[in-house]
Specification:
The protein is an alpha+beta fold. The protein has one domain: Pnp Oxidase, Chain A, CATH 2.30.110. 35% of the residues lie in helices and 29% in strands. It has a seven-stranded antiparallel β-sheet, sandwiched between helices. β3 (38-40) and β4 form a beta hairpin.
Length: 126
């Protein structure tokens, strides 16, 4: 397992969207899904807009690994559950509001709701 470089963190956290392709049941990768991403310190975090019902999220939890692509950076990752840290999730709520505050509230509000917060995953570079 490797760490994110400073450039990778800055690039990915600075882009609005990330393509996430969790591992599939066949050992390959699922089709990528476009989602939002936020940074906190030296970590990158994602949540499922649809909560636990999100197909990409269910695959990520089931398989534990995948590939992300954002801002010209493509990286294999592991998905680590980060939903249980209330302080982190409060910071991530603020990060989602700050980064995506220019979008309509119908998109931002679900990302900081309990259902999405319960799906918070840290992207761990491999």
């Amino acid at each position: 397992m490797s760490d994110w470089t400073g450039r990778e963190l800055e690039t990915i956290a600075g882009t609005d969207e990330l393509e996430i392709a969790p591992g599939g049941d066949d050992g390959g990768l699922r089709e990528p899904t476009t989602i939002w991403v936020v940074g906190d310190g030296d970590g990158l975090y994602v949540r499922s807009y649809r909560g636990g019902d999100g197909a990409w999220y269910r695959a990520a939890r089931a398989n534990g690994h995948g590939r992300i692509s954002s801002g010209g950076v493509t990286k294999d990752v592991d998905f680590a559950d980060a939903a249980g840290d209330p302080d982190l999730n409060a910071r991530l709520d603020d990060a989602y509001r700050a980064k995506y505050g220019g979008y309509p509230s119908q998109y931002v509000d679900p990302m900081v709701a309990d259902t999405a917060r319960a799906t918070t995953l840290r992207l761990v570079a491999r």
